[in-house]
Amino acid sequence: MELLKFENISKTYGTAAVLKDVSFAVEKGEFISILGPSGCGKSTILNILIGILAPDEGHVYKDGVDITELDPSKRKMGIVFQNYALFPNMSALKNVEYALSINNDTKETARVVATELLAKVGLSEHMNKKPNKLSGGQQQRVAIARTLALNPDIMLFDEPMSALDVSTRLVLRDELKSIQAEYGITMIYITHDQEEAFSMSDRIIVMSEGHIEQFDTPKNIALSPANEYVEKFVVEQINKKIEALTGFLNV
Ligand SMILES: Nc1ncnc2c1ncn2[C@@H]1O[C@H](COP(=O)(O)OP(=O)(O)OP(=O)(O)O)[C@@H](O)[C@H]1O
Ligand SMILES: [Mg+2]
Q1: CA 210 / ligand 1 centre spacing (Å)
Q2: What confidence tens digit (pLDDT) does each residue in 179-201 have?
Q3: Ligand 1 centre and the CA of 41: distance in Å?
Q4: Ligand 1 pocket residue status of 126, Cβ below 6 Å
Q5: How much distance in Å is there from the Cα of 45 to the middle of ligand 1?
Q6: Whose C-alpha in 8, 20, 141, 155 is 20 to 30 A from the C-alpha of 165?
Q7: Cα atoms found within 13 Å of the Cα of residue 96, Cβ hemisphere only
């Protein structure tokens, strides 16, 4: 079932065309990555999806309904940013409870649900700490729990792991995938890391300079890149990593 549709979206800043007639559709329950170099328009797509930025042209549909003009709070989408964006003066627990209070939960329910969600992301022992007492990975887990608390249909991620070390990234990758499996949430994940996109996604949107070069499964992209750009910047990079990791085995 088609959950989300981005139809002929264009966005220009001054004279710079940042998105040029971009269209794609996402099925319910998919994990989609948007992969592309810095400045190609990835965050612009996410900001239009969540409704904090309006497109110049085109429409966004959710469940077949035109939501292009709909208020962000009514879209049932949650976003996780690279910089966590937690409230610094509130504990992990209070950060998540605050999100629940937006959904009009009672204080008692909010406490129970927030505690459960923080346990889900492995933070039971750190619930009463403020963000500055938590590691980057722990802060990102709070941000994930807080977004889950809003009970979104779609979770968006704008390079959520860029600031984290490699081992934390690997653990969080698995956790995100299992959260997705458990809650059945559709996820759209921005990255400029080919390996991250290939390891996590059902399908990948490969972008360059404001348009989509290819939108397909990792396997199809690897086996039949749509053009030279995808071949060079995606497939060759992945192959280089594989060679670097396996090369020593053949010696
Ligand atoms: N508010 C703005 N005013 C003017 N130009 C902007 C604005 N926001 C973004 N841009 C430009 O639009 C282009 C796309 O920006 P966007 O943030 O979508 O890129 P991105 O793919 O997310 O890049 P990165 O990987 O660095 O986050 C960039 O060239 C950027 O400079
Ligand atoms: Mg960005």
Answers
A1: 10
A2: 999 989 999 999 989 999 999 99
A3: 6
A4: no
A5: 10
A6: 155
A7: 32
